[in-house]
Amino acid sequence: MFHLPKLATAALVATALSVTGASAQTVLRSSDTHPDGYPTVEAVKHFGELLAEKTGGRYSVEVFHSAQLGQEADTIEQTQFGVIDMNRISVGAFGTQVPEATVLQLPYIFRSTDHFHNVLDGPIGEEILAAFEAVDVVALAYYDAGARSFYNSQRPITSPADVEGMKLRVMQSDVFVDMVAALGGNATPMPYGEVYSGIQTGVIDGAENNYPSFDTAGHAEVAKYYSLDEHLMVPEVLVISKIVWDGLTPEDQALFREAAKESVAHQRELWQAQEVASREAVEALGAVINEVDKQPFIDAMGPVYEKYVTDPALQDLVARIQATEG
Ligand code: GTR
What we know:
Layout: H1 6-14, E1 18-20, E2 25-31, H2 39-54, E3 59-64, H3 72-80, E4 86-90, H4 99-102, H5 113-121, H6 123-131, E5 137-143, E6 148-152, H7 160-163, E7 167-170, H8 174-182, E8 186-189, H9 195-200, E9 206-209, H10 211-216, H11 219-222, E10 225-232, E11 236-241, H12 242-246, H13 250-284, E12 288-291, H14 295-299, H15 302-308, H16 312-323
Parallel strand pairs: 2-3, 2-4, 7-8, 10-12
Antiparallel strand pairs: 1-2, 4-11, 5-11, 6-9, 6-10
Helix pairs in contact: 2-13, 8-15
The structure holds beta-D-galactopyranuronic acid.
Beta-D-galactopyranuronic acid is lined by residues 33, 72, 89-90, 92-93, 145, 171, 192, 209-210, 213, 236.
C-alpha cells in the first residue's frame, strides 16, 4: 500500500497544477534531492526558463530542492500518481521498474564519458527514454552524473577483497545490491538522506557516489576514504508525470521536449565545473582519494550481467551499447 507523506497530502489538496488567474499560468512543481545550486537543480531551473520563453510564460517550473518533497523513491511514486508534476532523479532510483533503463545501471557498461554521451545522445538513448512511459512518466532528457565510486570510514579500497564484509549503502535498486554482493560486500539499500547519519553512527561503513554528491551531502566529513573504482555511470533523468503530460497539447509537448534537450548542454557545463570543485572541497576536508586497478572489479561483475541481461532484447541493447564508439 502506498502511504503519502504529509507534504504530499498537502500537495494533493492543492492539486498537482496551480493554475492562477486569467493569464492561465501553470507553475509545475519539480522535485530534486540535491541542494540549491547543485548542477541538476540549476539545470531544471534553466529548463523552466526556456519553457517559459517558448510558451510565452504559460508554463514555468518551481524546483523543490533538498528533498523537500521527499526521498527519491517516494517522489517517483508521487510523480507517477500526478501528485508531483516533474522530477529530476537518478535512473538508479527507478530500480528495475523499466527493464531498458536497468541496463544503464550495469556496472562498467560505459567505458568513458564520451561513450556515455554517444549512447545517450543517440537512438539508443531515445529508445530508453521512451521506455519510461510504461511506468507512467514521460522522460524528457538525461543529465550527467559522472562516475560513482566507493567511499567508506574504514580503509582505502584497492581490490574487491577490501570490499568483502563491508556494509555499503546503495540506492534502492536490486542491480546495485547485486553489484556490491558480487564484490563480497553487504549492500544496504537506504534513502540518500539517511546516508550521512548511517555512516556517522556506524550502521553502515560507507556508500558509493560521484564527487559532487560525496561533497554536497557532507559524506566526506564522515567517510574519509574515496576509492576511484568508478563502477557505475548512471545518468540522471528529467521526467514529467504522464497524467500532466496527457493534459498538454501536442504543440506544448514538443516545446517541453525542446526545452529539456536544450537544458542539457548547460547541465553538462555545470557538472564539469562541479566535479572539479567538489574534488577540491573533499580533499580540503581531508578525504583520502586512491586510484584503483579496475580490471578485477570489472571481472567480478559477470553474475550481475547474467542475472539482469537474460532477455534477448536486453542482450541486444547491451551489445548495441558496447558497439557504440567512445
Ligand atoms: C546521486 C544522484 C541522486 C541520488 C543519489 C543517491 O548521484 O544525483 O539523484 O540518486 O545519487 O545515491 O541516492
